[in-house]
Specification:
The chain is of the alpha+beta class. It has 2 domains: 1-38, N-terminal domain of TfIIb; 40-137, K homology (KH) domain (GMP Synthetase, Chain A, domain 3, 2-Layer Sandwich), CATH 3.30.300. Helix content is 31%, strand content 38%. It has 3 helices and 6 strands. It has helices at residues 40-62, 102-116, 118-123, and strands at 3-9, 12-17, 22-25, 66-78, 86-98, 128-137. Helix 1 (40-62) packs across helix 2 (102-116). 16% of the residues are buried.
Length: 140
């Protein structure tokens, strides 16, 4: 896996992946940015959320659960002083579907957190990561 970061202007950077996708990242105006894209640290949260949501959806589908939506609301705290690493991250899963089994949803989330999510595995030794979930009954 490869990626490339290229300075555009100020503190705006274009991130390009070897899968052919690009994302513009930028800093806050107070740090010389123009708020043209997410901050690099926000990208870490998005990566974590995307990685675990991917796992949860796949696990639930393999368990024959009828899932129609999965959202992950993420809240994080950072250290006050540099390097301002994440100290706590909470993932709140909102899983929507028909006749979802709460035990299967919890199992899928735990399997992602403890075994499958690469992003979680990288962060778990330095960040306290917690999660919870809610199930929404789909009308479809």
């Amino acid at each position: 896996m490869k990626a490339k970061i290229t300075l555009r202007e100020g503190v705006s950077f274009l991130g390009e992946t070897d899968s052919g996708h690009a994302v513009l990242m930028d800093g806050a105006p107070g740090a010389g940015g123009k708020n043209l894209g997410p901050r690099p640290m926000e990208m870490i949260l998005l990566g974590l959320g995307g990685c675990t949501a991917f796992d949860v959806v796949l696990i639930l589908r393999k368990s024959r659960q009828i899932i129609t939506d999965c959202q992950v609301a993420i809240e994080a705290q950072r250290a006050i002083t540099d390097p301002k690493v994440f100290t706590q991250i909470h993932l709140h899963f909102i899983v929507t579907g028909k006749e979802l089994n709460p035990k299967q949803v919890e199992r899928a989330i735990n399997l992602s957190a403890e075994k499958y999510c690469s992003a979680s595995m990288m962060l778990k030794d330095t960040v306290k990561i917690t999660h919870d979930y809610e199930i929404v009954v789909s009308s479809m």
